[in-house]
Design brief:
With about 120 residues, the chain is of the alpha+beta class. The chain has three helices and six strands; from the N terminus they run αβββαβββα. The protein has two domains: about 70 residues, no CATH class; about 50 residues, no CATH class. The strands form two sheets. A three-stranded antiparallel β-sheet has the order 2-1-3, covered by helices on one side. A hairpin with a 2-residue loop joins strand 5 and strand 6. About 5% of the residues have low confidence.
Length: about 120
Amino acid sequence: MQNEFIPYEQALVLKSLGFKELCFGWYQNGRLKIEMHPLNTGNQTAMRDVDCNAPTFRQAFRFLRQKFDLNFEITVGATGYNAFVKDFFYNEKNRLQEFTYEEAELACLKKMIDLTCL
């Protein structure tokens, strides 16, 4: 189940970008807590600066699409997956090496966050 949530570093950035949706998890001191936290989840003003909601990848992608008009695409390659965000091809590895699906998903999320900072 932990693989469904975006990493802590990206969750903190989404918090700074205005993400405030209810989540089934949250990060406390960088550690993922999977639970519906009735007092803090969704109310990030009550959290410490190092705490934040832990959105799923789906929630993060929807937030970035709705707020920043960013879309992504993961395509099947010969030996793995390729990641595309808008018109940018993004692959941290050698272009001949393709991602696993999970790596492609995280690469898209990171690139989408980078584009919000331009």
